[in-house]
Amino acid sequence: xxxxxxxxxxxxxxxxxxxxxxxxxxxxxxxxxxxxxxxxxxxxxxxxxxxxxxxxxxxxxxxxxxxxxxx
Length: 71
Description:
The chain is mostly helical. The chain has three helices and no strands.
């Protein structure tokens, strides 16, 4: 059975670069989630009470519902 050793040192700054890219990605995803949630809330607020009842929601549930639209 062959054994592969992969404990080579990484280039200088690679871990820092990875962390920066990860941070930027998380900021992007947070902004995207925030924008989607706001769009969903706005659309739901525009519906009448009868339309909300048709989809099984009450007006007070709009804020909680938009939170579940993650990704």
